[in-house]
């Protein structure tokens, strides 16, 4: 039911999840339908863009209808439509963006083009009021970056990965040890059963900048796995634990450095890897020991991965500031906060 709230429908199709979420007044989650295509990509060990686009075409209408049904709304109850226009896979972005623009045109509603990474940050706004200035650590399959938000609509990148994204490192290592794609959650679960028996590098741990590099850990793991397999001594759980510990050591140390450099009221961790159990416990420890005045917000796991609700949440912020997009808006596969 509408009840005079501002209701935004958000569409996400940048990679391998077709999802539609509906958010009221920027914070209240009314629906979040997520259809994953993972089974279609699994045998290829990664996302196949053409297969992904076709899935989006097949599922987008279903997701919109189901989200409206779950939220118990009529189309006339909506106040705006938001859709991701980048970054992501070109053909995939096109499907959700076109659906969003068409829906907005058909219903004569304002349309809001959403930066996927801003969506990951604003997943923290669901059931929560973000305090500014804020710092976001974005950790996903395609990105690892620190973003400083002076206020709601200002995004400044303070550091980024120089090579692989952290989720990408998880997925590549998963492949080496025979885990299905995407491997983040499986490695996280295996790590909880393992011990820290393998010594791995922690790249850029002691550099003063806020950049990351994960390809060194990946290469070290590859060499280790090859050696251990030759000797038939590979302990997968211990490897997962040692790898996860190295990655989280770097993420935590860099976050400490970032929080020493910028004065913020809130730290948001967003993106698929934000669902990681060790990352959550180590960040909680860091904040309570060293930055007790800073609030830590990590969205629940279902909102960490790609979803339409985060798009609706950021769409609500754009609506509040009347940042309406033109219906000629094109997708931008390499959209960044630097180029937006
Ligand atoms: O944000 P997301 O859903 O998609 C992108 O925008 O990339 O992130 C997906 C990534 C994958 O690399 C996946 O392996 C990783 O998030 N991931 C995790 C966990 N759950 C998902 N990585 C570590 N621990 C997890 N629990
Ligand atoms: Zn994402």
From TrEMBL:
What domain of life is recorded for the organism? Answer: Bacteria
Q: Which InterPro entries match?
A: ATPase_NBD, Gcp-like_dom, KAE1/TsaD, TsaD
Key word Iron-sulfur present in the record?
no
Tell me the GO BP annotations in alphabetical order: tRNA threonylcarbamoyladenosine modification
| EC code | 2.3.1.234
User: Where in or outside the cell is it found?
Assistant: Cytoplasm
Q: Where does substrate bind?
A: 138-142, 171, 184, 188, 276
State the protein's name. tRNA N6-adenosine threonylcarbamoyltransferase
SUPFAM superfamilies in the cross-refs: Actin-like ATPase domain
Give the catalytic activity.
L-threonylcarbamoyladenylate + adenosine(37) in tRNA = N(6)-L-threonylcarbamoyladenosine(37) in tRNA + AMP + H(+)
Which species is this UniProt entry from? Xylocopilactobacillus apis
- What does the note accompanying the cofactor annotation read? Binds 1 Fe(2+) ion per subunit.
Give one GO molecular function term: tRNA N(6)-L-threonylcarbamoyladenine synthase activity
Question: Has UniProt tagged this entry with the keyword Cell wall biogenesis/degradation?
Answer: no
Keywords, alphabetical = Acyltransferase, Cytoplasm, Iron, Metal-binding, Transferase, tRNA processing
The Gcp-like domain is annotated at 28-312
Q: In UniProt terms, what function does this protein have? A: Required for the formation of a threonylcarbamoyl group on adenosine at position 37 (t(6)A37) in tRNAs that read codons beginning with adenine. Is involved in the transfer of the threonylcarbamoyl moiety of threonylcarbamoyl-AMP (TC-AMP) to the N6 group of A37, together with TsaE and TsaB. TsaD likely plays a direct catalytic role in this reaction.
| GO CC annotation | cytoplasm
Needed cofactors: Fe(2+)
- Per UniProt, where does Fe cation bind? 116, 120, 306
Family in the record: Belongs to the KAE1 / TsaD family.
Q: Which EC class does it fall in?
A: transferase
Signal peptide span per the entry? none
């Amino acid at each position: 039911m509408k009840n005079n709230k501002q209701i935004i429908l958000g569409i996400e199709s940048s990679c391998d999840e077709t999802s539609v979420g509906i958010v009221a007044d920027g914070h209240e989650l009314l629906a979040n339908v997520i259809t994953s295509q993972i089974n279609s990509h699994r045998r290829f060990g990664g996302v196949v863009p053409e297969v992904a686009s076709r899935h989006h075409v097949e599922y987008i209408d279903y997701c919109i209808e189901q989200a409206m049904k779950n939220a118990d709304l009529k189309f006339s109850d909506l106040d705006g439509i938001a859709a991701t226009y980048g970054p992501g896979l070109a053909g995939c972005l096109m499907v959700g963006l076109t659906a969003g623009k068409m829906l907005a045109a058909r219903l004569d509603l304002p349309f809001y083009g959403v930066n996927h990474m801003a969506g990951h940050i604003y997943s923290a706004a669901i059931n929560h009021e973000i305090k500014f200035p804020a710092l976001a650590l974005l950790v996903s399959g395609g990105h690892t970056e620190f973003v400083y938000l002076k206020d709601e609509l200002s995004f400044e990148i303070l550091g980024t990965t120089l090579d692989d994204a952290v989720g990408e490192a998880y997925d590549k290592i998963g492949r080496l040890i025979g885990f299905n794609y995407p491997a983040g959650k499986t490695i996280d679960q295996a790590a909880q059963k393992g011990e820290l028996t393998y010594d791995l590098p922690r790249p850029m741990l002691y550099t003063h900048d806020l950049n990351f590099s994960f390809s060194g850990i990946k290469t070290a793991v590859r060499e280790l796995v090859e050696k251990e397999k030759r000797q038939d001594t590979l302990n997968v759980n211990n490897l997962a634990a040692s790898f996860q510990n190295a990655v989280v050591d770097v993420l935590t140390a860099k976050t400490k450095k970032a929080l020493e450099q910028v004065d913020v009221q809130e730290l948001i961790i967003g993106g698929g890897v934000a669902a990681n159990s060790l990352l959550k416990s180590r960040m909680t420890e860091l904040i309570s020991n060293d930055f007790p005045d800073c609030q830590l917000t990590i969205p629940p796991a279902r909102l960490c991965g790609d979803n339409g609700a985060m798009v609706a949440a950021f769409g609500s912020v754009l609506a509040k500031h009347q940042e309406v997009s033109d219906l000629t808006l094109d997708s931008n596969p390499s959209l960044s906060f630097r180029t937006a």
